[in-house]
Amino acid sequence: MSGGSGNPVLYLDGVSVVFDGFKALNNLSLFVEPGELRAIIGPNGAGKTTMMDVITGKTRPTEGTVRFHQHDLTKLDEATIANLGIGRKFQKPTMFDALTVFENLELALKAPRGPFACLRWILTGEARRKIEGVMEEVGLGARAHDRAGVLSHGQRQWLEIGMLLMQDPELLLVDEPVAGMTDQETEHTAALLVRIAGARSVVVVEHDLEFVRALGSKVTVLCEGTMLSEGSIDHVQSDPRVIEVYLGR
Ligand SMILES: Nc1ncnc2c1ncn2[C@@H]1O[C@H](COP(=O)(O)OP(=O)(O)OP(=O)(O)O)[C@@H](O)[C@H]1O
Fold first, then answer.
1. Percent of the chain predicted with pLDDT > 90
2. Out of 35, 64, 107, 231, which could bridge 235 as a Cys pair, Cβ 3.0 to 4.6 Å?
3. Which of 3.40.120.10, 3.30.420.130, 2.30.130.40, 3.40.50.300 would CATH assign to domain 1-85+169-248?
4. What NCBIfam families does UniProt report for this protein, alphabetically (predicted)?
5. Residue 1 above 50 pLDDT?
6. Whose CA is nearest to atom 25 of ligand 1?
7. Cα of 234 to ligand 1 centre, how many Å?
8. What is the mean pLDDT of residues 89-104?
9. Per residue, what are the HEC states of 119-176?
10. Which among 15, 18, 19, 206 is the best mutation to test ligand 1's pocket, defined by most ligand atoms within 8 Å of the CB?
């Protein structure tokens, strides 16, 4: 068993997911510490998306333990899990193009429930400071009043991360954040994720190994639904099993 020193925020032990007899996850164990940044890599079909789906309650494991602190995530629905403080960023942005960066963050904060909730909303000084803080964190401070629709692909991804941060997640799951980004945007994204981890745990699934290297974090390599190798990027890249999976055929 590996797992670090403290109590993990996220604890997966012996997790399997079987789809029609096919094991998408096979006895997977993974532990993420408070404030940790973790990269998950692996070839196509390795089970990375299925792992994220299990954590967020979209997919139920066939067997195994999935815990967020003391909460058994296998018993909870997606909305409850999100409310516990697990945010997930998908590849496709979900912001409103006609609204500004500031307004999108404002909407993410208040998440109005019910038809008149927004009419009762008054932007308090505290909320404004929070929005400004998040804009600085994701590097969009200078774009506050630009409409989301005019942002570059990279900036839109950062806004989306900012929208998740407005909900104060304790664990943020980020799916292939740098797909389609320029080299400069990719570098900015690595720095951004390093910056925002620490105050919360961040798990990043990504194919781009140069980007993963720039994260400087512990890396977990998945293959055929199970953990193949774990450690620094140098460690996993020199692991013969990883070399075989990535380069061997
Ligand atoms: N709902 C499903 N029903 C049947 N098989 C599925 C289902 N979801 C995923 N799979 C299979 O499980 C395996 C793992 O898929 P998964 O999407 O988790 O891999 P991945 O590592 O995210 O791959 P990629 O890098 O291509 O996104 C794949 O072989 C996939 O075809």
1. 80
2. 231
3. 3.40.50.300
4. urea_trans_UrtD
5. no
6. 44
7. 27
8. 89
9. HHCCCCHHHHHHHHHHHHHCCCHHHCCCEHHHCCHHHHHHHHHHHHHCCCCCEEEEEC
10. 19
Q: What is the DSSP string of 6-32?
A: S--SEEEEEEEEEETTEEEEEEEEEEE
Q: Is the CB of residue 25 below 6 angstroms from any atom belonging to ligand 1?
A: no
Q: At what angle do helices 153-165 and 183-196 cross, to 10 degrees?
A: 10
Tokens of 155: 């900036």
Confirm or reject: Cβ of 226 under 6 Å from ligand 1.
Answer: no
Q: Where are the domains of the chain?
A: 1-85+169-248, 92-168
By most ligand atoms within 8 Å of CB, the mutation choice from 23, 41, 48 for ligand 1 is 48
Nearest CA to ligand 1 atom 16: 47
Written as one string, the DSSP assignment of 79-102 is HHHHHHTEEEE-SS----TTSBHH
47 lines ligand 1 (CB under 6 A): yes
User: Given a cut of 80, is residue 191 above it in pLDDT?
Assistant: yes
The answer on pLDDT for 240 being more than 50 is yes
Contact in structure between 138 and 166 (CB atoms under 8 Å): no
How many Å apart are CA 200 and CA 184, to the nearest integer? 25
Greater pLDDT, 96 or 4: 96
Q: Check pocket membership of 59 for ligand 1, CB cut-off 6 A.
A: no
CA of 30 to the centre of ligand 1 (A): 18
